[in-house]
Structures are given as structure tokens and as C-alpha cells.
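Structure ticket #2291
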Amino acid sequence: MRRTVDWADGAVVIIDQVALPGAYRTLELRTVDDLVGAIQRLAVRGAPALGAAGALGVALAAFAGDNVQAEAERLATARPTAVNLRWGVTRALGKLGEGPEAVLAEALAMLDEDEHLNRTASGHAADVVLRETTRRPLRLLSHCNAGHLATVGWGTALGVVWHLHERGLVESVLVDETRPLLQGSRLTAWELAQAGVPYRVQPDSAAALAMSRGLVDCVLVGADRIAANGDVANKIGTYGLAIAAAHHGVPFVVVAPESTVDASIATGADIEIEERRPSELTRFGDARIAPDGAEVFNPAFDVTPAALITAVVTENGVRTPQPTS
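Resolution: structure written out below.
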């Protein structure tokens, strides 16, 4: 698979994730407006991929000669929960004084780093999974999409599956369908099928039952922001999944690059939670599935307390949470 986010002929090139699994296509984004729109409609998504896209967006603005600082802020706030987006924008912006080519070079360096960092983080996490479990081969549970599509290449939580599958240690993966836009059943299932890994899609609400029946040896998830104390913001439903895992004694492992750690945030209570459009819940395609005028609560993320997490793993290994004062 090509890179999820790349640069070619003066444009940001992305795999269009809202088209999958029905169609595999790429989009060329030549303006900051185009990129912001793609980020907000989830055509490009996943914390590491957003960091790379944000950096390349700064390069777009720099070459266009726009008000780069203002355009960078638009990019950084296009989705508020994932810290990697602002991290990528800030890192690229730091090269602005050296000219547009330097901004682009920094962004491209981030692309090159991404796959190495995620391979390393997921390799560390695979070792954690093997230490925390006894059954072989493993039955794993995945929530949302934390694979190749959520990064520039390889993946975070799903990268663990690739490591273990290469060693013949994966029996199957249970894939939560995952709101918003069913990113598990559309994207994670597609990636697993491409890789030849056995899987089953399930509704999010079936995860606790699967654990109670002994069908899950370990839960693997990514992260969009990690607070200093180890609380983790991830796709909506992760918190409930962690509660069920704790009740059933199932290890719960979070995998993310260090850039997802926000040391300025003491606890998860300080993390802004994005809310999505009501129509994502009230409509299915062109059909209305809720009454006219129905009020909607549609958060895209939730926060899982550190106490419910077996390990948070980055390219530097297992992180030690910093206690709040």
C-alpha cells in the first residue's frame, strides 16, 4: 500500500478514507482549504497521519505565500482532540524562517520517520502483549482504525497485529465497527483482509459479551492524545471497552508515537472532545433513521483513565504515567 499521506507535484496526496472499502482512490489537495475540508470529513484521519498532513499543509501555505501563521492555525484546529495535528503544524512552522523549501523538507522528514517510529512502538507493544497473555495463537480485539491508514505507514495498534501475524501468533481479530463513520468495519476490516489476517466484525456493544465468553485475549487500541498522568483520549467507545476489559481481566494495551503525548495536559479531564455532525447519527445514507427534530449527542472521542490501562507503549517503550500534584 502506498503512503496514506504524501507529497507530489506541489500537492498533498492522500488515500481517500471515506471511499473505502468500496473504492481505493487518492486525492490531490492543492490548497489549505482542500486539506482542512479533507481532515474535517475524515478523508484523512488517524493521529499520526493528521500530524503529517498538518505539516504538509504548512508547506502548501508557505509556497502559496498566504498568511502562513493564520493558515497554520486553521489547520491545527481543524480537529481539536488529536494533539498530533498541532504538533505536526508547529514542527513544520518552525522552519518557516528558512523558506518554503525548508518547511517542505521538514514535513517530508516527518513522513520518513513515521513508519520507523510506528514499527518500533508496535514491536515493543507486541512484546508486552506476549508477556501479558498465555494463550497461543492470540485472539485480539481492535477498536476503530489504528493501522496503516491512521499513519503514514505501518500503523500503531494494528501494527502489533502485523508483528504477531508475521510470527504465526494470531488466530483472529475481533473488529469493533466503531463510530464515527464505522471506521472499524470499513477500514480496519479492509486492512486485515488485505493482509490475510482472519477477522470478524462485531457491533461495539458486543465487546463485553465476547470477553465474557473468553473470546478475547487482549485489547489493542491507538490514541489521539495522552495526558501526562496516562489518561488516554481515543475513539468513542474506548472507555467502555476498557471498563469491560478490566472487569474480565483482559489486558488493555494502548500504542501510539511519543508525539501523541501532551505533557501540558495534566489529566484527561483537560482534553477537548470533538463532537460530530448530528446527521452522522440521524441518517443512514439518504435515509433518515431518527425522528425529525431528534436531539443528538455525538462525541467522536472519550477519555480512558490510566487506572484501566495495562500499558501505554510508544517507540520508547512502556510509558510511566506522571502523577498529578
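Closing remark: The radius of gyration is 19 Å.
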